[in-house]
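Researcher: Structure for this, please.
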Amino acid sequence: MSKSIFLIKILFLLSFSLLSFSFTINMDSLTGKNNNNNYNKNNNNNNLIINLRDTYRVSVLDQNVITSGRVERNYKTDCMRFDWSGVNIEFNVTGGQVVIELYDDQNEYNIFLNGTLNSIISTQNTINFYQIIGNNMFFGQTNVLITKRTEASFGISSLCAIYIDIGQNLIPTRPFSNRKLEFFGDSLTCGYGNEGIPPCSFSAQTENNYQTYGPMLARAFNASYSIEAWSGKGVVRNYGAPTQTSPDPMPIYFNRTLANDPNSIWNFSSWVPDAVVINLGTNDFTTQPNPSQQLFQDGYTNMLEQIRGAYGKSILIYAVCGPAINDPCCMYIQQVVKQQSSMGYRVVYIDMQNILTNNDYGCDGHPNVQGQQKMSNAAYPVIANTIVWSN
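Model: Predicted structure, token format:
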């Protein structure tokens, strides 16, 4: 009998040791290691050992976790999925460490603590737990804002849990602004290469949607925002297509919650913007063969009708052209805007042609952060003079 009790004790101790070990995650390769000297990341989370034994799990669907941008909430899996650029996830914690459980292997995220960029997460398929706040970083109430730097082409992300210290709690945070702006575009809207120093090629590490004209404008207007954008997409023809039209231009993605899942249909009544800002057309005309004027203008008009079908005929739409394209694309867009305006629709043209100089470029001829700020500056007065905020 005593031998059986001894064996049971040994098995119990071994099981406890294995359980403890399973909650210790080696974070040697977490966030920000980049050998490209032309690009620098803010990172302080390398070589961390995460211990979850003194934490407890909080659902990401908790009422104190708020989001902006298109997010799919799954109450069966207790996870949220997303892939569009610029998705924001925000919560307040009373103190202690914070770890998130995130399934992703290519996307990158900004981590803001109390309004200051603290670190950048570079996801890997071998890591599912990422420390947001370490034990020795903050001890009081902290606001956590996670923003998705990268675009939908890097795949779908699944955020499944937040772990916080026992004795700490998530508490309500300030809600996102009732002012709402939606941005629909291509690489210029994604932030393709905006943090690269030329000469450089595009990578996830050089893209930061937070530092693009859309979020810049939203912050200037104290507005929340949603972004649907994909590099290389056009109105009727994508970059490099061998024909005048493509089977999958940007408008086919407009109704999707997840760009990579055609079955995920967005509920437009859940978030109605005060205005939609479109910057599309560059890829239609950057390479040959260009679409004809009729093809392009018909496609652009159909896109405007698609947006009005989602939000109603009175929705305000801004049609941007530039800074990476000129005529005939911009002339064609201006003609559509003029025609639409004559029909009583609220469509306003924003001209961004020729606003960039040699110092305003990042990777592959795309605007850097300074160039993105110039785009925001060009759009701001037009929007300020024409928008009527619902709140």
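Researcher: Any notable elements?
Model: The CA atoms of residues 192 and 207 lie 5 Å apart. The mean pLDDT is 89.
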